[in-house]
Amino acid sequence: MTDRIEKLKEFLLKQPDDSFLQHALALEYVKLEQDAEAKKLFENILEKEPDYVGSYYHLGRLLERANESQEAIKVYEKGVAAAKKAGDNHAKNELQMALDDLMDY
Question: What does the pLDDT read at residue 105?
């Protein structure tokens, strides 16, 4: 696992603004439960590239796990809007289901 993290960090040194690489690294951190590192990366991606739809779901889940439900709701709502704008119905539905599930609790 750490080999992948090191490899991704190497790639990011060459391409520091690559959202795909940042997203991949964040997912590796999630697997290791290094949530603070993952959260920073997801937030960075969405700050500079708000149309990067995949990061909304994972950031929302991370916030849920941290018992930050209100923040997760905001992230899911933004994600639904971004997915709708991008015409990505699969992501929109996935984000909407996560949002609905969270709001049912």
Answer: 65
Asked if pLDDT for residue 75 goes beyond 70, the answer is yes
Buried b / exposed e along 10-26 (16+ C-beta atoms within 10 A): ebbeeeeeebebbbbbb
- Please check whether residue 75 is in contact with residue 101, taking contact to mean a CB–CB distance below 8 angstroms: no
Give the angle 28-32-38 at the CA atoms, nearest 5°. 55
User: What's the CATH code of the domain at 79?
Assistant: 1.25.40.10
Query: Is residue 8 within 8 Å of residue 25, measured between CB atoms?
Result: yes
pLDDT at 19: 96
How many domains in the chain? 1
- For residue 53, what are the domain limits? 2-104
The dihedral through the CA atoms of 54, 50, 61, 3 has a sign that is: positive
Q: pTM, whole model, 2 decimals? A: 0.92
